[in-house]
């Protein structure tokens, strides 16, 4: 079953930050959702603050994965958009937990002091192949790293073709995300083959 390689991918990314790349259709949202659920556990993490980038607009698909995995609806992460007033956002951030947020809003909040980068526990970066040094996500992560050397960054992509385009595309994404480790899970990897074969009738 897919859970076998998902468990392996989860363990290695939990142990050390990096960019995890799945083949298309292998369930990158399921992996991302496992980390969302982990860091949204208030009993375990308290008021630690985690932001999830590049999910707004795709949040229902992520919610469906979380619900299918047994996550109570009341424990789904909060979506933060420009419809959430700054004062309300500041109060939300103080509570901790995982927030699905647009990059534009988070840039504004970081620059205006609505959130202190030093108080952010970490980032989950969906569709990380889109991140560049000049993108909003790259800017956010640079501000974060300048103020916070201990927080985590865990990045996810299901577009290996995009990462293989051009000169050192994957390396540039790693640099923009301030990451060193690249975790590749192509369909021909042994653990993936075993998992997919096990799920074949």
Describe this entry's structure for a reader:
This protein has 201 residues and is of the alpha/beta class. 46% of the residues lie in helices and 17% in strands. The chain has ten helices and seven strands. It has helices at 2-15, 28-39, 42-45, 59-68, 86-95, 103-111, 136-147, 160-163, 169-176, 190-198; strands at residues 18-22, 49-53, 78-80, 97-101, 120-125, 152-157, 182-185. The chain has a seven-stranded parallel sheet, sandwiched between helices. Helix 1 crosses helix 2. It is globular and about 50 Å long.
Question: Percent of residues in beta strands?
Answer: 15-25%
- Count up the helices: 10
Q: Based on CA inertia axes, which overall geometry fits?
A: globular
H/E order of the elements? HEHHEHEHEHEHEHHEH
Average pLDDT reading = 90
What keyword list fits this structure?
7-stranded parallel beta sheet, 10 helices, alpha/beta, 201 residues, 7 strands, globular
Task: Please render the helix and strand layout as text.
Elements: H1 2-15, E1 18-22, H2 28-39, H3 42-45, E2 49-53, H4 59-68, E3 78-80, H5 86-95, E4 97-101, H6 103-111, E5 120-125, H7 136-147, E6 152-157, H8 160-163, H9 169-176, E7 182-185, H10 190-198
Parallel strand pairs: 1-6, 1-7, 2-4, 2-5, 3-4, 5-6
Question: How would you concisely characterize the structure shown here?
Answer:
The protein is an alpha/beta fold.
